[in-house]
Amino acid sequence: MHVVIMGCGRAGSRLARRLENQGHSVAVVDKDPRAFHLLDVDFKGKKVQGVGFDASVLVEAGIERADAFIAVSSGDNSNIVSSVIAKDVFRVPRVITRIYDPRRANIYRRFGIPTVAPVRWGVNKIYDLLFLHRSFSRYTFGNGEVELMELELHSNLAGRNVRDFEIPGEVQVASIERFGEAFMPVSGTRFEKGDIVNVLISRKSMNKYKKMFFMD
Fold first, then answer.
1. 37: left (phi over 0), alpha (psi -120 to 50) or beta
2. Is the pTM value of this prediction over 0.70?
């Protein structure tokens, strides 16, 4: 796989090193040549000075044969413009962009480009650590709109039916791990003491999740 990365900051350089270590071909684009010092001295990929929305720069980076384009520069506008060019002009199969402004992220996703919004994601994680100390996120979908949360069932909830803890479209019990084996419950499944429960939750329903599963 050939991957073009725009932005050689901490995220871009680490991603480039990881992809190269896994045997992929990598080209990194950055307007500041000093940024390339974040790459390993033995980095074998291509370093291209310039802006990612310049077609000639992208061509030099191998965009015409790229399997993926990832924009992680410090500028939201640069990231989305270069991503649109990679997707619509060069027809790159996989295009991913980082957007700091959550409001912009929602808009840009309408272009059909997956976005990562670290500000929203970070705020959600801090909130979880602050208020959900007996539960943690196993997986985040989208930009945090849906979470897969894992918790150890409170002993006082043993014997209750799964259906009592589900709200259609908001909270859904996805799996239960019992005696080291996981299974997908049905509405009539009863919780048992020691169950490890994975729950899909709409972020807007996090308070409902807390009230249902936590006793204090």
1. alpha
2. no
